[in-house]
Amino acid sequence: MDNQSTDGSIEWCRDQEDIRLIITRLDLGASVMLDTGFMSSKGQYVLCMDNDAEIAPTYIINAITIFEGWSKGKNFFEDVQMVPEIEQYCKDGYKLGCLTPYMIQQDLKTKDLKPGLFREDKFDTNIQFHGASCMFLREAGDAVGWYNPDYYLYHNEVDMGARLFKKGYLTMYCPMLTSVHHISPTTRVRPRLLYYGIRHYYWFIWEHLPMSLALYHTAMWVCWSILSAWRYPKTLIMAHLSALARMPWVFIRRSPIRDKRMLQPWYPNIAKELNPRNWWSLLRGEKTFGV
After folding, report:
1. Could you give the C-alpha distances from 209 to 109, 201, 264, in angstroms and in order?
2. Beta strand 53-55 pairing with 113-115
3. Among 4, 24, 26, 209, which residue is least crowded by beta carbons within 10 Å?
């Protein structure tokens, strides 16, 4: 899938005999572009990769081994431990819907490597996954309709993970699936990402989190968004107006997750969330939040 890129990707893909290239219009949005690729593909499993990520040679065979092992009720790799909750989810009838890798982030300028979202050395489960290189069970993606076109990058992933869990599919982190994500050497605050990040997080917390957590994160998000986007008052105002305009539909779809394991990343972390250093960094524009 190509969304009108200008870096030579289109020309390179056209020269490959084994690649089917689909070029979308610029105004379709990231989620629609990805969904088009998912629904145009074939096979029992779907590998999703960004153009700035690369996977280890053993990634695909390991992923298939894990999917097939789950369906047969077997341990995937005997030398790798699992968090105990996974076994219970399996007993409760959950299927495996998405695998997310040990994602190594590489700075394009310095070539430094650092771990990404997950750092465990054992199988773990969460509703978050790395959309830059993950593998889906097609049955699971079809069951939830893949990415929600209302969401932009980043929040479309955690929203899909939440919907997968509600449908009885787990998202599992697998340490033997390795991927490298080549990232920009600089973190910059961009109005477009601020706009989407602000409004989409409101939608996510009110559709998927219990009332108490939704209220807490709303209060925190108002503060963080003001600190992060005060240089862009128009973006800040429009993001909140857009979020409010869509709220009635969000409340219609509202179906909070009750599972404590899945809600763990959203439980209050006062030491981190009220750390003056983090707030000062947002105010100075040294980093953005949630995106």
Report:
1. 38, 11, 11
2. unpaired
3. 26
Cα–Cα distance between 206 and 203 in angstroms, integer? 5
Averaged pLDDT for residues 169-178: 92
**19 CB neighbour count, 10 Å cutoff:** 9
Please tell me whether residue 244 adopts helix, strand or coil conformation.
Answer: helix
Neighbours of 194 (CB within 10 A): 22
Structure-block tokens of residue 289: 């939040």
User: pLDDT > 90: what percent of the chain?
Assistant: 50
Task: Give the residue, 61 or 108, on which the prediction is more confident.
Answer: 61
Residue 8, pLDDT above cutoff 70: yes
State yes or no: pLDDT of 158 exceeds 50.
yes
Closest CA to 29 of 136, 120, 152, 118: 152
Among all chains, which residue has been given the structure tokens 């939440």?
A: 162
CB neighbour burial string for 155-185, b if at least 16 within 10 angstroms, e if fewer: bbbbbbbbbbbbeebbbbbbbbbbbbbbbee
Query: Residue 81's pLDDT is what?
Result: 82
* Residue 268 amino acid letter: P
Evaluate whether 213 touches 222 at the Cβ level (below 8 Å). Answer: no
Q: List domains and CATH numbers for the chain.
A: 1-42 (no CATH), 45-183 (3.90.550.10), 191-284 (no CATH)
Range from 106-115, 162-171, 184-193, 218-227 that averages highest in pLDDT:
162-171
Q: Which long-range contacts (CB under 8 A, 24 or more apart) does 89-94 make?
A: 89/125, 89/170, 93/168, 94/168, 94/169, 94/170
- Beta-carbon-side half-sphere exposure of residue 252 (alpha carbons within 13 Å): 4
Angle, CA of 171, 57 and 128, to the nearest 5°: 20
